[in-house]
Amino acid sequence: MKTTLRKWKMTDAEPLSEMLNNPKILANLRDGLPYPYTIDDAKGYIKAMLDADQDQIFAYAVTDGNRVIGSMGVFRKENIHFRTAELGYYIAEPDWGQGHGTRAVKQICELIFETTDIIRIFAEPFVRNLGSCRILEKAGFQPEGILRKNAVKNGQIEDMKLYALIRE
């Protein structure tokens, strides 16, 4: 099992589409993704990530060997928060519980801290998403609080946890 990050390729559209057609994954992501998620949707996302400002958006496919098993991105904030970035990710359901998420989060944070001026990376998983919370904790993120009634997902008002990793 070798978890790595790499830039997206257009040939990743099919596995990306398969991953995002899973309601269990979509239940833990922000709204805005189409469902069903087509190969054309995946190609559009991949193109957008490849064309993005490389100092603002750091988007990668998560792989196990040659197999795409997830997506991970760090997104720089603006204005007074320009040295802060938000982390987002998901791992394909068949690969849950195998350490891929933790390894990929550690890799992307190391990369961001080594190659950019970003000093704070944060994530806001739903409180109910215990797997994601555990990934962040195992990767060294510190819980900073509960964002009560912070979102509405699938008609439900949701609490979120705020985690951060600070460059020391």
UniProtKB/TrEMBL annotation:
UniProt keyword list = Acyltransferase, Transferase
- Domain N-acetyltransferase: start-end pairs: 3-163
Q: Which InterPro entries match?
A: Acyl_CoA_acyltransferase, GNAT_dom, N-acetyltransferase
Q: Where is the signal peptide?
A: none
| Entry similarity comment | Belongs to the acetyltransferase family. RimJ subfamily.
Which protein are we looking at?
A: GNAT family N-acetyltransferase
What species is given as this protein's source? Answer: Acetobacterium wieringae
